[in-house]
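Q: Second attempt. The first request was missing the SMILES, so the protein and zinc ion are both included now.
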Amino acid sequence: MRKFAFYKWSLPNPFCLLIFAFCLLPFCLAAQTAPSRFHHLHLNATDPAAAVDFYTGKFDCEKATYEGRTAVWAQKSFLLFNKVAAAPPAEVISAIWHFGWGAENMKETYQKQLDMGTRFSTPITELFPNFFFAYVDGPDRAIIELNTAQHHHFGHLHLLSADAVSAGEWYVKHFGATWRGNRVPSRQPSFIRNFQTGPNASLMMDNVNIIIFPIEYARQAFPEWKDRTAFATPQGRVVDHVAFSVDNLAVSVEALRKEGVKILEKAAGRALIEGPDNIRIELVEGHARKE
Ligand SMILES: [Zn+2]
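A: Got both inputs this time. The predicted holo structure:
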């Protein structure tokens, strides 16, 4: 009797197999869009050549070309620059707050930067014991953070969100980002020096840490949030958009469309989509490579 039951189980009903395959389909489609890689940050600059000199002269990155234009290559991804006639607005009202490089010895790095004439909008500050940060006043008022890290590479992108944990989940679901240190974030409010910094999210995409702070932080910290209720589009601002690379653009765009993601533009080899908090994300087919 026992043997018979085993035999029965070992021959699956074709109908069950079909249902099983159908149930797996969404996972297969999602897997095709993931994991993505960090491709570039796209900035608007009044003087792209000067901006490239600025970044390559001060941080660990190098001059490169991307599609025939001068760009910055930072370890595994690019900074790209659009030339604009007038200074792009730089108040922090879009979901993109700043980006930055690490520093093994912040005090030494800070002094070195001061010695070479780098201007800081926020001087070196000890946030926690032995963790320092400072904000460089970059080209076109871009905010570039230097902070204590175990490396001195292009290391993070700092975003803001009306719902940071859900935004983080969105990057996990659609692009295969992973929770940094495998820590699933808490939805409880948290504070650093009376500023609301949580709920927040910290993700890894490739070698870039994407940190998402709550909108409450922006309201407390930035005067530009007085009377503001929602995030502006980053389009035309100092950081115009971020870009991820995917293996197969057509497959990714179709999967994203089915998952309800708004596709803003689609062109040969690239697409533009809207992410949480009005952020603009470009998708590029093929991973970033130094040309
Ligand atoms: Zn771009």
